[in-house]
Amino acid sequence: MTEAGVWCATGGGALLYDFSLGEFRAWNRAAEELTSDTLTSVAALSDGRIAFGTDREGLSLYDPRSGLWFTETVLTSSQIVGDAILFIGEAPPWRIIGSRAVGSGTAASWRSAMAR
């Protein structure tokens, strides 16, 4: 939850219950730059971005200030060890992401003090 509303990760994309509008806003892969519609977790980060974990496409990061989406995967970020994201947590300056390689049963975690 942020001051703007309640963020939800769903099997059909991202949702925000917008407090100011009193209604839901939705994002999905077809209309936005969301990397997957199958989202597994969500966290509001201390830098203002909203992080969504996906079932096999890494992280989708939404910046509400710019309205832009960013993606981090094992191919684009050395800090992510698997593209199947299980959970996202933050206790500044640390960010912890539980993930596993797609098709693997092994869980791993990533932590970083970097704000990207």
Commentary on this structure:
By secondary structure, this protein is mainly beta. The protein has one domain (5-112). The chain contains no helices and 10 strands. The protein has strands at 5-10, 13-18, 23-27, 39-44, 50-54, 59-63, 68-72, 84-91, 94-100, 107-112. The strands form 3 sheets. Strands 4-5-6-7 form a 4-stranded antiparallel beta sheet, with no helix packed on it. Strands 1-2-3 form a 3-stranded antiparallel beta sheet, with no helix packed on it. The chain starts with a strand and ends with a strand. 27% of the residues are buried. The model has no long low-confidence stretch (mean pLDDT 86).
Average pLDDT metric: 86
| Class based on secondary structure composition and strand pairing | mainly beta
Helix content: under 10%
DSSP summary: helix tally: 0
How many strands?
Answer: 10
The main pleated sheet reads as: 4 strands, antiparallel
Helix-strand sequence: EEEEEEEEEE
Over the alpha carbons, how many angstroms does the gyration radius reach? 14 Å
Shape: globular
Layout of SSEs?
Elements: E1 5-10, E2 13-18, E3 23-27, E4 39-44, E5 50-54, E6 59-63, E7 68-72, E8 84-91, E9 94-100, E10 107-112
Antiparallel strand pairs: 1-2, 2-3, 4-5, 5-6, 6-7, 8-9, 9-10
